[in-house]
Amino acid sequence: MSNNLPKVAWIGLGIMGSPMSENLIKAGYDVTGYTLEQDKVDRLAAAGGTGASSIAEAVRDADVVITMVPASPQVEAIAYGPEGILENAKRGALLVDMSSITPQTSVDLAKNAAEKGIRVLDAPVSGGEAGAIEAVLSIMVGGEQADFDAAKPVLDALGKTIVLCGPHGSGQTVKAANQLIVAVNIQACAEAVVFLEKSGVDLAAALDVLGGGLAGSTVLTRKKDNFLNRDFAPGFRIDLHHKDMGIVTDAARNVGAALPVGGVVAQLVASLRAQGDGGLDHSALLRSVERLSGQPVQA
């Protein structure tokens, strides 16, 4: 292992974190990981990383600490307090939070970390589980140029489109916009699917030709099989998209931006969750349209 590379601590080994951390190991980085589920820590160790039994142990010697957890409360839980990252990482370490959280949480984290001599970037991602596995994620970053430059080689091992979008919190703002576009796009695709099926059209053929025209999108390409097979195994859970729609509607209100269609889709995501579908992939917005259209919904 070439140890001129920075030592990396990885906190949060879920659907996204596990394959991302493994891509860093493949790129030659020394990765020490911690997460709540022991089997995920074991998976990292099996892939050539080092398991840690606490956050403090994971981050102690790290040059770069990367976090990938579900939401703002989890980021705060792992960053703050005596067992947290800020108390246990070394001065000069670079903390790259790749979770999708509120822009304000990122701004506050950067401010609190600076008091400990720790540099911070918010670096949320788009591309889902497939993008994480293939290392082709889009990574939107907020923070200082110098810190972005330092993190860039590490981020290059995780994604393909890596852009500094502005000061702390900017990455989260762009991610919120991303989640708005994705949700509205999935909803439009779901409505088209039900319309096509109820019209007796060959759905696979229709989605192929739509994908080649102006209606084509990464969402349609990535989710076409989910729609065709009614396969809603989670690449990105409705529960998390519900959280993200809350972030974007709240942030938009704060700056005075109207989201008329986004607001409707946010409610459709919320209703899907209320019907017990929160653990399904966000392509399960199709189930909501089926219910509204009197279609039988598979259990």
Task: Write up this protein.
The protein is an alpha/beta fold. α9 packs across α13 (260-277) and α10 runs antiparallel to α11. The longest helix has 29 residues, at 170-198. It has helices at 17-26, 38-46, 55-59, 72-79, 85-88, 103-114, 128-134, 145-156, 170-198, 203-211, 218-229, 238-255, 260-277, 285-292, and strands spanning 8-11, 31-34, 50-51, 64-67, 94-97, 119-122, 125-126, 137-142, 159-166. A 6-stranded parallel sheet has the order 3-2-1-4-5-6, sandwiched between helices.
DSSP E strands, number:
9
**Total DSSP helices:** 14
Distance N to C terminus = 49 Å
Give the low-confidence spans: none
GO molecular function: 2-hydroxy-3-oxopropionate reductase activity
InterPro entries: 6PGDH_NADP-bd (IPR006115), HIBADH-like_NADP-bd (IPR029154), HIBADH-related (IPR015815), Tartro_sem_red (IPR006398)
Family: Belongs to the HIBADH-related family.
EC number: 1.1.1.60
Describe what is shown at a glance.
Residues 169-287 form the 3-hydroxyisobutyrate dehydrogenase-like NAD-binding domain. Helix content is 54%, strand content 13%.
Which terms would index this structure?
single chain; 299 residues; alpha/beta; 6-stranded parallel sheet; 3-stranded mixed sheet; 14 helices; 54% helix; globular
